[in-house]
Amino acid sequence: MHGGRRLEGVVRIGGAKNSILPILAAVLLNKSTDEIVLTNVPRISDVVKMVQILRSLGAEITWSGTDMVITTYNLSGFAVDEKLMREMRSTIFLMGAILARFGQVCISHPGGCAIGQRPIDLHLKGLMALGAQLREQHGYIYASCSRLIGTDIHLDFPSVGATENIMLAAVYARGTTVINNAAKEPEIVDLQNILNKMGAKICGAGTDQIKIVGVSQLHGVEYNVIPDRIVAGTYMMAAAATGGDVTLENVIPNHLDAVISKLREAGVQIREENDRIRIQAPEQINALEYVRTLPYPGFPTDLQAPIMSVLARAQGTSIIVENVFDSRFKHVGELNRMGAQIIVTSDNRTAVVHGVKRLTGASVSAPDLRAGAALVIAGLAAEGKTTIDGLEHINRGYENLENDLAKLGADIKRISSDD
Ligand code: UD1
Q1: 355: phi > 0 → left, psi -120 to 50 → alpha, else beta; which?
Q2: Which domains does the chain have, with CATH numbers?
Q3: Distance from the CA of 383 to the center of ligand 1, in angstroms?
Q4: Which residues lie with the beta carbon below 6 Å from any ligand 1 atom?
Q5: pLDDT (tens digit per residue) in 212-271
Q6: Separation of CA 73 and ligand 1 centre (Å)
Q7: Within 10 Å of residue 284's Cβ, how many Cβ atoms?
Q8: pTM over cut 0.85
C-alpha cells in the first residue's frame, strides 16, 4: 500500500467475530430437528474453521453470503479434531457445549493468537464446579459427567471465554448456576439472547452476575449477530490516523463508548446516530495522557494496537497500559521500523509513544490479528510504500479489509507472495 491518503466515505460493518464463535458453539446444544438460522455472519477464516469443526462433529451447515442454516440433530462425535482445535483458541467454548450435550468431551489444548500465555484454568475450574470430571493426558483434555449440576461460581478474572463456556455448559445443568465476576462484553449479551430465544433461561448478561436456570430442551431460532465493535473501532482508528471523514453503518455506538471517548479526547469529532457513527479527524491528533485497556466497558485490549498506530503520529507523548494480556506489544518493533518512537517498559505492560511528525513505509510482518490491523493503519498514514506479510492473521477477523479501505480512498491491494 501507499500511505498518505485521507480516508473518506461510508463503510458497512459486518457481524462480530467474538459473537459468532460462541454462537456456533451454542448451536450444538440444539438436540431438536429444528434449524438454526443465523444472519449477519462474517466471512472470516475463524468462522470457516469453526464451520469445519462443526461439520466434523456431524452438523449440517449451509452458508450463503451472510446467512447460515445449521441443523445439529444428528451429531456423531464429541471429540474435536486436534489440528483444527490447535489453529483456533475459540474452540475452547466447544467444551462446555459438547459436555452439556453428550456428557463427555475430548479436546486438545487450544492454540490461537500469540498474545501472552492465555491459560484456560478459569474455564476448567468452572466446568469442574458444575461437576465435570477432568483428565489431562498426552496434550488432550477429557471431561465427563452424568448431568452437570448448577452451582455458584466466582471467576478470579472476568474472562470472556470462561464466562461463555460456563454459560453454555450450564444451560442443561440441573438447578441454577450463578456466575459472579462474569465478563460484561456485548458478545456475552448476544450469547444470552440467542440461547434464550432457543429456550434457555438466562439473565444478567451485561452485568457481573449471570444466572442460568437449567432446562432440558432447546429449539430452533432465527438470529441476527451483532455488529463487530472491534472492526468498527479499527475503521475509526484508520480514519483518525489519516485525518479522514468516515461514516460507519450497521454499528451499535454505545458498544464503542470507551473508544469514542478516547478519540474525542485526542481531538477527533464523532457523531453518533442510531446505527451510524461519523468520524471527522483533524490533520494532527493530540496525544493521550493514558489509554488503559480493561475488560468491558473499559477500553478494549483488541484496539490497543490500532490506537497505538494513531498515537504514533500524535502531537506529544502518550502512555498505553495493557492490563488484559501479558504480551501484547508485538507490533511495537514493527511500528518502530516505520519510524515510530515507542518504548515498552521492562514489565511488558506499558508503552510510551512519542509522537513523530511522519511515519515512513516499510516491509513489516503482522504478528497477530489486531497487531496486523494496526500495521495496516500505520501504513495508511505513512509516507511511501508499506508491505505487510502474515495476512493469515488479519484474515481471521476482517472480511474485506483491503477492498473496504480502497473504497474509502486508500491505495491498497492484496498481492500473493510471488507477485
Ligand atoms: C476474548 C476475545 C478476544 C479479546 C479478549 C479480551 C473471543 C473469541 N476472543 O478472548 O478477542 O481480546 O476476550 O477482551 O471472544 N485468563 C486466565 N485464565 C483463563 C482464561 C483467561 O488467566 O482460564 C486470562 C487471559 O490469559 C487474559 C485474560 O484472562 O490475560 C482475559 O482473557 P479472556 O477474557 O478469557 O479472553 P478470551 O476469551 O481468550
Answers
A1: beta
A2: 8-15+227-407 (3.65.10.10), 17-224 (3.65.10.10)
A3: 35
A4: 18, 21, 90, 116-123, 157, 159-162, 183, 187, 301-302, 324-325
A5: 999 999 999 999 999 999 999 999 999 999 999 999 999 999 999 999 999 999 999 999
A6: 31
A7: 13
A8: yes
